[in-house]
Each structure stands twice: as structure tokens, then as C-alpha cells.
Amino acid sequence: MVTAFLAVGVTTGVFLVLSVWLLISEKYLANYGSVKVDINQGSTIFERTGGVTLLNALYENKIFIPSACGGKGSCGYCKVKVVSGGGPILPTETGSLTRAEMKAGIRLACQVKIKEDISIVLPEEILSVKQFRARVSSILSLTYDIKEINFALIDPVEIEHHPGQYIQVEAPGPGEIVHRAYSISSPTYEKNKIQLIVRLVPGGIASTYLHGLKEGDEVAFTGPYGEFRLSEDINRNIVLVGGGCGMAPVKDIAYSVLEKWPARKVLLFFGARTTKDIFYLDQYRELEKKYQNFKVIYALSDPLADEEQKKWTGETGFVHLSVDKYLDKGAQSQAFLCGPPPMIEAVTDVLKEKGLVNVDIFYDKF
Ligand SMILES: Cc1cc2nc3c(=O)[nH]c(=O)nc-3n(C[C@H](O)[C@H](O)[C@H](O)COP(=O)(O)OP(=O)(O)OC[C@H]3O[C@@H](n4cnc5c(N)ncnc54)[C@H](O)[C@@H]3O)c2cc1C
Ligand code: FES
Hints:
Ubiquitin-like (UB roll), alpha/beta, 366 residues, Rossmann fold, 17 strands, six-stranded antiparallel sheet, Elongation Factor Tu (Ef-tu), domain 3, binds flavin-adenine dinucleotide, binds FE2/S2 (inorganic) cluster, six-stranded parallel sheet
């Protein structure tokens, strides 16, 4: 028995020493020399010393890949097609890639280290993502943990975005800048500003940084990113479902759509827990008066928690129940969902029962 424990201990010790040695030699001893990064068959080529991640090498050269988790390998947003030179697929990538993607050479840019000349393919829209500087113009507390933060753009002074897209804020983290995704809540026609709706995550680096900003403070971000695409067919209804700070892209889409197509049918659902989590309801009621085909439905999942809540006369229960109640079966619709994963999954099931197919349903889980 003692011998067995000893053997396990020695093996673990050897393994640990080897791992540490590998990490040290990778960091301090490995010398990959100068490597070439070729984008879109020679349309852009740059050189840098090997050993960094593809994501960082591109960032240094002002090519901004979506990286919502900041390079931790958990969001799967940083997919790029590697034609050659990417080395074998790593275990840290397999959870985010389908078999078909792996076969097609898709890799996670934050996990691929450039060690030799590498050739990649990037879509044009990624190459048009820019870095912005902006100044805080106003801040509004929407609930006890959610703030609306408005930024005036400094350089460039204008942003073009599709409704529902997001930016990545550069926030000072411990020892390095971290990048976090935030959906744009201002409509597409407000080109000189960006509005964000940010929930404070206790201990969270970027949300604490954003909640600590004051009027006049300067921030940097890149964008726009995201694959939400509105159909131009005005006969297709728009279904918007947001939970908590998932209100951000939903608000952008509602205002952008109604300004462009005032007669288009838009149903906006918002899921919250209690009346303390409600915001923007009054301004949406005003919007309902202005646009006869716009309807807003707020649903509270825990409405009887205190006296004030008992006065709530709106919908109750999880928001997917309201979607089920108000959305007609078979209506030609496109849906945009933002919020926590269980909400997205429950709403998606309801939408499919109503006749929507996968290509009609766009979502960001956060
Ligand atoms: C496409 C996209 C759009 C987004 N849009 C918005 C938006 O409009 N508004 C907004 O507020 N957020 C949004 N997010 C989430 C945002 O990017 C950050 O993940 C969030 O603000 C936390 O970052 P942080 O740096 O403060 O926390 P971190 O420093 O990354 O995390 C600190 C700790 O909190 C945990 N944690 C991280 N995120 C959450 C969370 N959401 N809830 C609970 N615990 C968490 C982590 O596991 C960790 O333990 C979006 C995310 C994506 C992918
Ligand atoms: S940046 Fe999130 S997986 Fe690569």
C-alpha cells in the first residue's frame, strides 16, 4: 500500500516538474525567429517574432478578431480559417469546433501559437473592424446593478453598425488589458455615439471598470462585431427577447427597425425577476403610442416577493411563456434573443414550435 502511494507520488512529482520545465522552456528558451503571417493569399502580409498567439499577433497589427472571453478559449468567437502553418489542433480548441470546422481548417486564434510561417483566411468584414477612442458623455443607473453608459466618439468620430452588433471594450486588468464584449444599445442612426447597458458582475474586471467610469473619462474599444442580420423584407415580423442586460441589442434593434420601417410589426419581450429589475418600460410605452405595430411585453418571474410587486399587473412567469402566449403560430418572423443561456434555450424551443427555423433565430448568450 505504502509502495503504491509512493509510486503515485513520484509519478505526479515527475509530471509536475516536466510540465513546469516545458512551460519555462516555451516562455524563455524557445526561439521561433521571425515568422510571416499571410492573410487572404497575400493581400496582407506582416512579420513578427514567433511564439505569440495568432490573436495577439493580429491585434498588434490592428486586425481585430472577435474575442469575447478575452483569449481564454471559452467563448469560441475567435474562429479563423488556417490554410497552413497552424500546427495540430489543440485539446483546448476541440470543445469549440465542430468536426466539419476542424476538417475545413477552422481554428481558435487565441489558442494557435505562431511558430512558423502561417497562412490564414479572414472575411472582409473582420478586416473593416476598427479601434475607437470615446469619452463618457453621461451615465444613468437603470437598476441596483445595471448602468446605461453613453460615449461620444472621439476617433474615429463615426461608427457604422448593423442592429444587434457588439463592441469589445479594452479594460485595464491585473498586469494586462482585457477585452470584453458589450452589445451596442444605441440605434444605428446615432453614428457619433455608443450606448452600453452594463450589469456589474461582482469581482468582474471589465464590468467593475465600466461601472467606475465618470463623465469625461476616455475609453478604447474595437468593433463592430457580430452576425445579427435583419431581413429587409418588411413583411417579416421582428421578435425581440431580452433578459437583464440582454436588453442592450434588443433596444438597438427596436429603435433602428422602427425608424427605418415605421409600419413593421415588432414584438419586444423582456424577462426580469422582480420589479426592481425593470427599466425602460415607460419609454417603450411611449414608443407603442408612436408606432401602432410595436408591442412591448415585460414578464416577471418572481412577482410576489414583496408588497410593491403585488401591484404588478403585467405578465408573470418566465419570459418564454409570454412569447408562447403572444406570438402567432406560422407568422413569418425573425427573432433576436439575448440573455442567460437557459432563457435562450427555452425561448428557442417556443419559437420552433411556432414555426421558426434555425436561420430565423439569432442569439447572444451572456
Ligand atoms: C456577444 C456578447 C455581448 C455581451 N453584451 C453584454 C452587455 O450588453 N452588457 C453586459 O453587462 N454584459 C455583456 N456581455 C458580457 C460581458 O462581455 C462580460 O462577460 C461581463 O461583463 C463580465 O466581464 P467582467 O470582466 O466584468 O468579469 P470577469 O472578470 O470576466 O469575470 C469575473 C468572475 O465572474 C464570473 N462571470 C463572468 N461573467 C459573468 C456573468 N455574466 N454572470 C455571472 N458571473 C460571471 C466569471 O466566471 C468570473 O468568476 C456580453 C457578452 C457577449 C459574449
Ligand atoms: S477569444 Fe474566446 S475562445 Fe478565443
